[in-house]
Protein 1
Amino acid sequence: MDCSTCREMMLEFVEGTLPAKVAAGVAEHVKSCPSCMKELEKQSSRTRVLQSLGRVQAPDQWEEISRSIRRTGPWYFVTKYGIVAVIAGIVAAVAIVAAIAFLPALRHASPSGSSSNPSPAPAESAGR
Amino acid sequence: MSDSTDEALVREFVRTGSRAAFSQLYYRYKDKVFNTAYRIVGEYEGARDVAHDVFLKVYVEAPGFMFKASFSSWLYRIAVNRSLDEARRAKRRRTSSVDALPGELASGRDSDLPESSVIGKEAGAEFAEALSALSPKLRTVITLRYFEGLTYEQIAEVLGRPIGTVKSRLRRAHHKLGDKLNAMGFTPPEGDYGLFNLSGNDA
């Protein structure tokens, strides 16, 4: 294993998520490469510190959230982001739905000579 | 109902509008949502806003939740998206402010910071400062992996990205964090930080 591959796998090696065979390869390389060993020590130390940083005590916002639900419910976002943004969103959604709904009708309305028109015209004319 | 699964609680809430079921989901996840927001946004008040909006969004959108992903992944996804949005706003606020206050994670002025728990206050503050220098995207993967303890697969589901992308983002985040810590002259606190066993292959 070369240094570049070893560095690529170092994070997973430290976190213990590499398959055993690959991890053995990394360990083997690190033992004989002082530079990668140094990097591994740094990586290991960083990871351990990150894992040791605790959580923040979250505030209890239940009452606040309940109030918002009671007062505004779905309209909360209207009051927060503004009526214009919400209306623009609704208009865009309606336009998309309308486009999808009317697309087949528009296709039928296209000229009969159009090559995209799959009408049974040739059969009818043959019958007459 | 306290032992009910997330799915059972969501279904109960959607079917009957049960405030009790929703409340239970809130208390089950409030710490996770708030901490995710706090680490990404870097401000206590900003994180409060995010947590508030996230649960309100869940309340409004739960009837459309199809259970294709787990409830927690869905919740984390909402929290991450809202936090990234708030982080952008916070950055705009800071850059437009004359004082250009750094985030609370960097200044360490927030008394609720738990960084002193294991590694010592000074080292914790230095680490927090280095973390706050990362982009919100990189802080997100660090947060989900180390503070929330999610697996690579779970992070991929939350972010809607392939596992390879998650791993490369984590590597990039570590790299940048290392550079920042080096620039700050950070030395790891003393103690047994060896995570690996070079003599074995159980890493």
Note: The first helix of chain B runs from residue 6 to 16.
Protein 2
Amino acid sequence: MSATPMRMTYREACRQALRDALLADSRTFVMGEDVGKYGGCYAVTKGLLEEFGAARIVDTPLAENGFVGLGIGAAIAGLRPIVEIMTCNFSLLALDQILNNAATISHMSGGQFAVPLVIRMATGAGRQLAAQHSHSLEGWYAHIPGLKVLAPGTVEDARYMLAAALADPNPVLLFEHIVLYNVEGDLDPAVTAVDIEHARVRRPGSDLTLVTYGNSLPKCLAAADTLAHDGIEAEVLDLRVLRPLDSDTISRSVSRTRRCVVVDEGWKSGSISAEIAARLAEDAFFELDAPVRRVCGREVPVPYAAQLEEAALPQIPDIVATARALVRPH
Amino acid sequence: MADFLMPALGADMETGKVVQWLVKTGDRVKRGDVVAVVETHKGAIDVEIFLDGIIGDLAPLGEALPVGAVLAHVLEAGQEHVARDGTAAPAAPTHPSPAPAPGTAAVAGTRAKVSPAARHRAQSLGIAPDLLHGTGPDGTVTLSDVVLAAAQPTPLPAEAAPRRGFDAALMRQAIASAMSRSKREIPHYYLASTIDFGEAAAWLEAWNGDCAPEDRLLPAALLLKATAQALAKVPQLNGFYDKGAFRQGPGLHIGWAVALRGGGLVAPAIHDVDRKTMPELMSALRDLVQRARAGGLRSSELTDPTITVTSLGDRGAESVFGVIYPPQVAIVGFGRIAERPWVVDGRVVPRPALAASLAGDHRASDGHIGGLLLEAIDRALQVPEKL
């Protein structure tokens, strides 16, 4: 039976993932600010209240620490909560619950209690939402043992990562990039699940590896197209999972291409990009033919003005120029 | 890492061409090894190296490179940073770009950029990666450079360009340039004296009487040795005038002027003349003359002379007044040895006489010193058994 690919937006993929989860398991419920009547601040939960009712689509007050704590309790008690935090900037209000409780309880209880909680949050910049709604904090969360941190960069991952996250006994954080919501992609009908363990090569190449995730993934793919015109074959590696980091796949790719550019919208200092560069230095030093380079967000609060916001983020020409300088003499 | 530079094979040399490498990348070299054949207006010269280590990044054959251009890199054992002699000519960063003009600061002691992958592979292949020509950004030696170097067959000496003979026109030009410079810059003074060669001639005859023809000594050997002995007493004439001051030569390396068939001349050094026995000196002289004419002079023989001796032999003129070869400060000339009336104990007797001359650089010495040298040569030739 030949299956035609289904085309949908990343937002629709997220919505269908939620709907699937709600249909599949009666223990599942969605909770967060404006997820019910308003349909979600990024319209991901639109229509779910009507379909599943207020007991499973729960609007909360503006009290992140409170409702994340509620989610943790529910998870320990046997439910499968999906908590939405409007943007990852606001998740800092719930950092106490996430770090001190969700991430530690299994450890502190000697494994007696699992916290099968999923927290979805919007991340990233590019829609002129200014410095309090635009940051990429997934790298911070990737610092914390006890959590799993996912960053879907494709429609397929947006569609299927949630199910894998719910099946995991650990607290899992899902970072959905705000620019990707409107991006369309094809879903292969043959694929009905994805893993949440491995990085994946999105474009094979031999001359260097662009290691990236989230909304920097389409930028890297576009940069690879440009580089290909110059005869530079860039491999694009989508991290997908920021914790635990798939060091093996990264090392394998870079050991083959021998050059690496890490592209991350997050700030450079003390970041996931720094972690990747450090691991390559540890694991693949003798395979490197050039220093690891990074194209990252400028170290400023993300500006509101469109041209400044654009300048503060990694852009395709930056990636192309960095890659080119790494491969070719000037 | 140190640079092996195109040597200045004389004051008159501006460029040279490497026509043959006698080593290959990765070879260990030591002081004094002949590593390349460089073609100059003095013919093909065997160029020696004065560095110890592993050589690589060899300059391409057949390209005219200026004096001071980097011909190769030498990775010195146990050293990453090497301070070169400040007087050495400057380095050029890569081939084939020409070296900057002499006088600019030398770029030495920087570590070659070798990627970890390249270094790792080179180690397993037994290649010295620091010596390879890097094609990566900033000249970084990359893995592919190592792989390529490993795949390249070792060039055989037979593939090298053949030695070429002298180009008479080029040599004429070079002599013109050096001698013009000498006469323009050096205020010469001239001294002459006639020396009784009788004792020396008798001693030679006695010595040669027992010898096979090929072992016989020629007067030239005595003249050289006598000059060396005299210079040991008058070192003010053995050395160089450089940057406004006289600098004594590091040894008694006497340049011996050799006229070449087809015109031109060259005055390569016989090293440490004072320390050679007479037979050693004679054989060194024969060898030198032969190589000067047939090709195969060594670079040190062209760069090291601390003074020049020109002797016209038995068919030449009665006397000769030389033109100093800069940056040397003196040239000793010997004319034809011929029977002359000589006064001994109030009686005129026939004696073999030798007209000796000295041209000195008046910036470095005065006539008095020059006179001492000629006198010392004379005295040395009167006791030939002590030569």
Note: The interface with chain B takes residues 258, 285-290, 325-330 of chain A (CB under 8 Å).
Protein 3
Amino acid sequence: MTCEEFGRVLPELEGDHLNGEREEHLKTCLSCSGLVSDLNAISAEARLLVEDQEPSPRVWNCIAIALRQEGLIRDPEVPALLAGSRLRGWRLAWLRPVAIALVVGAALFLQLEHIPRGAPVARQAATSTPVLRTDGVGQDSAIDADEVQLLNLVASRAPAMRAGYESDLRAVNAYIRDAETSVRNNPNDGIAQQYLMNAYEQRAMVYEMAMKRALP
Amino acid sequence: MRPEKSDLTDARKSQGNRLTEAEAIERAKQGDEEAFEVLYRLHKRRVYSLCLRMTANTAAAEDLTQEAFLQLFRKIATFRGESAFSTWLHRMAVNVVLMQLRKKGLPLVSLEETMETEEESPKKEPGAEDIRLAGSINRLQLEQAIGDLPPGYRMVFLLHDVEGYEHNEIAEMVGCSIGNSKSQLHKARMKLRELLKTSRAEKATQP
Amino acid sequence: MEHRETLAKLVVAVLFAGTVVASAETRQEFRFKVHHRASVSVANQFGPIWVKPSSGEEVVVTAVLHSDKVEVDHTYSLNRVSITSHLLAGADADSGRVEYQVSVPADANVTLHSATGPLRAERLHGDVMLEGNTANVDVRDLIGGHVHIKTLNGPVTLTNVSDGHVEITSVGGDVALNSVNGPLVHVNSTSGRIVYDGDFGGGGEYSLMTHTGDIEATAPSYASIDVMASSTQGKVENDFLLQPTHTSLAAKAGNAFAGTMGKAASSVRLLSFSGKIHLKKR
């Protein structure tokens, strides 16, 4: 067996016992035996590579936010009915925003006759239909309690940025509301679904950046 | 697949008197935030290191780590313990990375690398110094050399030699033949050998 | 005489104050040897970051710190360089400001974070990821690398970017794309205006979507595109004569249009929920 022939079969030999002429060739050829030895050493060393790299704290924070948004993290006082129900994950997470969207949608419907054609619906809704929340947030119709908490965290470390984040959250929440309404009216509309995905992506980005500001 | 590299087992407690992995899994199914965090802390290094080696970019690796854990946590209710939790998570992380690379249009196995080429045979240079690597590979140099591999070679090398997947598993994940996977692996190792020898030769010439 | 003395004292006081201000600034330089495809990240809460290519396999970071209330931390291992501005107690947007100029090998992957910016990257062909709050983002002459930009309200301008994936997410910042082509160009905005001026080339997938912002796209008459534009609440305008296509999009006069030009090599989607859309001919 020549070195060239040995080189051709080498990729297939992994894990196989060397026998016959291959073994004989290695016994007599220093180059090929050196090559096999080196390749085995590289493979052996690779197995020892340790996982010593740590992601930044931001990663867990973003995961926790997403889990809360999707309803996968539940507070202990959630009623057993819901906790044990089949409504899990994203379906549970849809309940609250859908409920809010329905209320806002109903209020919008009543106002639509007074809105000039072509006017930005989202901006009109935010200013003309303040919906009283039952979670104690008061007049902040476009921001829920979790978001208020997030904004307060941001304010504690970067007070000048709070107003900007609040404005952004209102804008993306309005986007989500419009997109959810659109999906509900046209469930098979791919564009409506794309808007909704984009809107959620925007909110996730605002959350992520706000969390970074809130971290030391 | 070979045994897990991590020395954390299901029975071992994660930190002090906190939950074990098995307890954390059950509590996570109920929506317990601490349980999710325990599972994250147990496995974050392995997942992140995998993503980092595959992408060579810290920001991308963090995004992929986040996505892998999110996908896992969304499906945790379906985990029945048929396989080790870490195996399940690890496989998910690999799929997340591969999906991201596909989405970006990056070739998992490049066209050049899939073409049939003559295998490199060790060149005989009479009188040339033969630098052996066995027993003297520097881990940092190996990490650097892995980072310098072409993406397709790096992918198969990481999946096989670092993460312990078999060729049939790699072929299925990456979308190539088993023969291709073996060929890529061999070329990756040959390339690493070349890089490590070059690195050693450079160091030898430095004052 | 008294007047002159007062004036002299005033000049001295101003000079002294200037000296104090100037002397509070410090300049630091760091150099790191790297291999090709190095990863370089810079995180700077307040202040600009400007990245350009270096001549060799070296990362050179020059930082001007505005006060002693901020430090520059750096880590370097395995071909990765990470620079972070570390704010000390009492730092604010002014005292915590650091100005960075960074030179990297052209094939390095670069990640920049700054709340206020501006952020600027030019003449690179590695992947570039930029993130800012109100930072003005300016990217030019990037070929081959992927470009990912996230901003809340800072304006984004890309000029002469090609052959990579471009993904921009902006809440309120306007986005301007000049001569941007590639296999994938995605802009996702809430209220920012999107302006595109190019030829939609490369057989790519172009998607410009916004909630309330306007979209203005300018293309040449030889553009080869399969275009779809729709605004749920706003108006759409089209300067081209399009070949009709079979599409599920109900072409509503004034709200939507769809069709092809040339060989329809690239797919173009212009979608605004309530803003105006105008596809203009150059």
Note: The interface with chain C takes residues 56-60, 104-105, 140, 143-144, 147-148 of chain B (CB under 8 Å).
